[in-house]
Amino acid sequence: MPRYAYVNGRYLPHEEATVHVEDRGFQFADGVYEVVTIIDGHLADEQGHLARLDRSLRELAIAWPVKPPVLRLIMRELIRRNRLRNGTIYLQVTRGAAPRDFAFPKAPAGTLVLTTRRVSRFGAPKQLDEGVGVITIPDIRWARRDIKSVALLPQVLGKQRAVEAGAFEAWQVDPDGTVTEGCSSNAWIITGDGMLVTRAPSNRILSGITRQSLIRLAAENGIAFEERSFTVDEAKRAREAFVSSASTFVMPVTRIDGTPVGDGRPGPVGRKLRQAYIQYAQQGPSVR
Ligand code: PDD
Asked: Which residues line ligand 1 (CB under 6 A)?
């Protein structure tokens, strides 16, 4: 079955889908993106992801390439054409193609690209059973991490360091010793006295859409929650830890720089939140 991608008004075979050599996304990373999960034919947190896309675009003064309801239709059409029931849909908007010049082009025509990826399960059984390891690295990113920009070089380098260390993710650490977030996920701990903790949103982190839903689900499940920064040392002494993102939901972290977290096994709070999130995501808009 052919796999399609969407580029500026056309559904094209994935291998043939291309953008202009002078696209500003390619030359300046002048663009933003979103990743939305499809689970059992339902879009997880679609509204939240499109709201954040809107915010990212406004912060960078990039116009919506199509109206939001049209984007929703394009998403559904691509999912339908690719017969996707479980996977992710990637949306990217750039300021478009123009002769290379740092300042904005006078009449920008944005670029809109959508691709999908099939996923058989969100997290391998071994990762969910045993948890994953993270390493810690200095956060070398810019000061507007709240914008979901395609300028991801620090995260690319961080993830590569994680892979080379046999870890799943790299937690980025600010100069004051506090964890900001993973390279493509938010970071969470559960303290010795059972408090669920994640960093407050600011321009130091990307405010994850999964993160926002998990905060609501924690309240609904009677899990005590505190929004604050934590250090690497505090995380190593935590009872549990996990990361959250659209593509992993909740993934237990059982080693930080090789130090076991708690008893070194995934814990009940992370497990409960993962179940709650999956249940919630399965009630999202149906794409059938
Ligand atoms: N990454 N922090 C960063 C730096 C991220 O790149 C992501 C998501 C998150 C989690 O956000 P959300 O829950 O909205 O997915 C936090 C996506 C999945 C990616 O780049 O593939």
From this structure: 35, 181, 184-186, 206, 208-211, 244-247
